[in-house]
Design a protein that fits this description.
Elements lengths: L1 E4 L16 H5 L6 E4 L2 E4 L8 E5 L18 H12 L6 E8 L10 H13 L5 E7 L2 E4 L21 H21 L4 E7 L2 H14 L4 E3 L2 H7 L14 H23 L10
Parallel strand pairs: 5-6, 5-8, 8-9
Antiparallel strand pairs: 1-2, 3-4, 6-7
Helix pairs in contact: 3-7, 4-5
Length: 272
Amino acid sequence: MTLFPVSGPFTGRSVCPDRTDRITSVFCSFPPYFHLEKLRVERKSSSASPRVVEVVQDRHGERIEIFDPPFYRKEFEDAYRFIIDEYRVAPKEIGLFLPCSVRKPYSQSPSHKLFRRIIDGVLDPEDYHIVIFGTCGTVPAELECMYPYQNYHYMLGKTTDERIRRDFHRIEVYRLTGYLEKTRDTYRQRLAYCIGPFRKAMVEASEKTGVAVDLLPSDPMIERLYDIDCPFPEGSLSMQGYIDEFREGLVRLAGAARRGREGPPDGMPPGS
């Protein structure tokens, strides 16, 4: 494993490099140092900067990606610590927490395209900030192209090993707790759209920090759509019943945000 410096500042924008430019895509990352695996590094002289001269590729000519549980890996903890310790999250009225997706970057997955269409149809872009959480940890959405967040492929739902599931819960509660603490005064309202293990981790992190997070879909809706005969009994967040509740919840948030901007009527104290 090679500790490799990254040149240039990270702009904070979600800009993914061309995947055909493999050297560039390796360096779409921050913090200033991160671990690269399966690379051969060469120096022409002791003073020269190292450069990547070979990247192990799969049969399609793409970089080897991460397929083991990502939450155990050091580069995910390093990236998380950068977010918690160094990255500035801009204040917004609403923090929206969405689960990570199989397809990367997250914003290009079918589920996230659906979620974002609904969000953009209800909320003013100036009012909200999206945070991705799950097996990736806790990631501001604008950092979705930062290494290693678009370099892993893992589905916790397919895991039958209870030890891995317990470890995920413990690690994700720790990471969500850190993010909720960091952003305690960043958002006025928070909504997490999640089911299953991600929801359980969010509930515990919210309770530990005392930071209120509204949860959707509702427990009654989850119970209504629950199907014990399905591989994923709680179904998908793209199911219509869940989506309808998500939209309704966003409408409520939009109303609260609008009232917050307008302020109370003359002579009435805030919060009345």
